[in-house]
Structure formats: structure tokens, C-alpha cells
Amino acid sequence: MKIRIEYKLSSDRESRRKEVSAIESTIAACHPDLIVWEVWELMPCERRTACNVIMIELREKKQ
């Protein structure tokens, strides 16, 4: 399953990594039967300094 999240991420790499990690943790807390498999940052901005959209692929945890 893939979900699309529109979120204005910070322009610096370290802050962006922390923000994506917080989103992953929130998903894990709300959906304990799923794991975050992969995350893509889509950068539609003209200067590519900040990301507006991330795509997250979720998979079911193996029992």
C-alpha cells in the first residue's frame, strides 16, 4: 500500500530527516500491523530546496 502525504518539509537535510522520522513514527503508532517500507521525497518546487510531498510505502508485518 502506498500513501501520499503533503507536508512542507524543511529545506535543510537534518531537519527534513527528523520530520520524516516523526511521520514514520506516527504511522507506526497508529497502525501497529504495518511497517514503513520505503519513503520517497517528491520535489515539485522550482528551486528544489524543500519538499512538498512524500510518498510512503507500507507493508503488513509478517506474523
Overview of the molecule:
The chain has one helix spanning 13-30, and strands spanning 2-6, 34-42, 53-60. The protein is an alpha+beta fold and 63 residues long. Strands 1-3-2 form a three-stranded antiparallel β-sheet, with helices on one face.
Question: What would the keywords be for this entry?
Answer:
63 residues, 3-stranded antiparallel beta sheet, alpha+beta
Question: Secondary-structure map with pairings?
Answer:
Blueprint: E1 2-6, H1 13-30, E2 34-42, E3 53-60
Antiparallel strand pairs: 1-3, 2-3
Quick take:
The protein is α+β, with helices and mostly antiparallel strands. The chain has one helix at 13-30, and strands at 2-6, 34-42, 53-60.
